[in-house]
Amino acid sequence: MRLLIPVLIINLVCCTVSGQGRRRPMTMNPGSGYANYNEIAGGFGLSHTTLPNSKYYYGLTTTHGYQLNIYGLNVNRDLFGGLATGVLIYEGGLHVPLCLDLRFTWNIDKISPFVSGDGGFLFNFDDVNDKTMMVINGGGGIRIKISRNLYTTLGTGLRVQMAVGGRRSFINARIGLGFKAR
């Protein structure tokens, strides 16, 4: 019995000390976390450019969200979901978008392709009832890695806006900077 207590204490100390060297990540997927995109966007009208706000637009957008890296399946891909807003200027005035943005990226190396889709509302505060539009934008592009946490994006897509006065469609382009907290 005298020998049992010191053996138990030594065994407890050895187990505690050997467990100190291992650090486990805070989440199950340590590459996931907050990310954002800040982009300059612009587009040219495709058809029915006689409608108001259908010839062109340009502006700035910012998207804040969460990037989920899918490394558990032995694939090098990530999925981003976030909320986008900004300021877009049309020939008829100022609009403020509020959209849900989804992006799926294949992380190849320094240059990675992605597909994106966003949808939501485009508010005109001059006349919220008649000039607010619903918007859907689908497209793709490339993401160029600058550093571990910073990258630039180049993309294009097709944008469709629906409002009381009719439907508008645009071919658009975006260029911007992205940041991923690690």
Please characterize this protein's 3D structure:
This protein has 2 helices and 8 strands. It has 182 residues and is mostly beta strands. It has a single domain (29-180), classed as Beta Barrel (Porin), CATH 2.40.160.20. A hairpin with a 2-residue loop joins strand 7 and strand 8 (166-180). The longest helix has 16 residues, at 4-19. Mean pLDDT is 84; it is low at 17-27.
Q: Which characteristics define this entry?
A:
eight-stranded antiparallel β-barrel, single chain, 62% strand, mainly beta, Porin, 8 strands, 182 residues
- Tally of separate domains: 1
Q: N- to C-terminal separation?
A: 52 Å
β content, as a range? over 45%
Beta-strand segment tally: 8
Give, in order, the helices and strands.
HEEEEEHEEE
Helical coverage, percent range: 10-25%
CATH class: Mainly Beta
Structural class by SSE content: mainly beta
Number of helices: 2
Mean pLDDT: 84
Q: Give, in spatial order, the strands making up the sheet with the most strands.
A: 1-2-3-4-5-6-7-8
- Biggest β-sheet, characterized? 8 strands, antiparallel, barrel
Examine the secondary-structure arrangement and name the CATH architecture: Beta Barrel
Identify low-pLDDT runs: 17-27
Q: What's the CATH topology name?
A: Porin
Based on CA atoms alone, the radius of gyration comes out at: 24 Å
Overall spatial form: elongated
